[in-house]
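This section describes the prediction task in plain terms. A model, or a person checking by hand, is given the sequence of a single protein chain and must write out its three-dimensional structure as a string of tokens. No templates, partner chains or ligands are provided. The sample shown here is typical of the held-out split.
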Amino acid sequence: MSGPLWDYSPCIHNFTYTADIDWPRTELAQMDWITGIQQVEEWLVNYTGPKYSHWTWHTAREIYHIGVAFKYDRHKMLFLLYWS
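The expected answer:
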């Protein structure tokens, strides 16, 4: 079975710091959400650390937003400074 290497399902977590950003957009409308998730996930891994230990997907408050939860406030701030 093959599938994406990433998983964008919000999960149960105990991270306190959450942030929403506008969905990253590309010129390819159909691939828009896939490219956006890959971009954000790659950035998160590079600048905040491994998924599930430093950050995880979180349910966004708006339909066209991506939600992320962070273990550390400094990672939330860095994320918002870069993506907002």
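For orientation: Helices lie at 32-47, 73-83.
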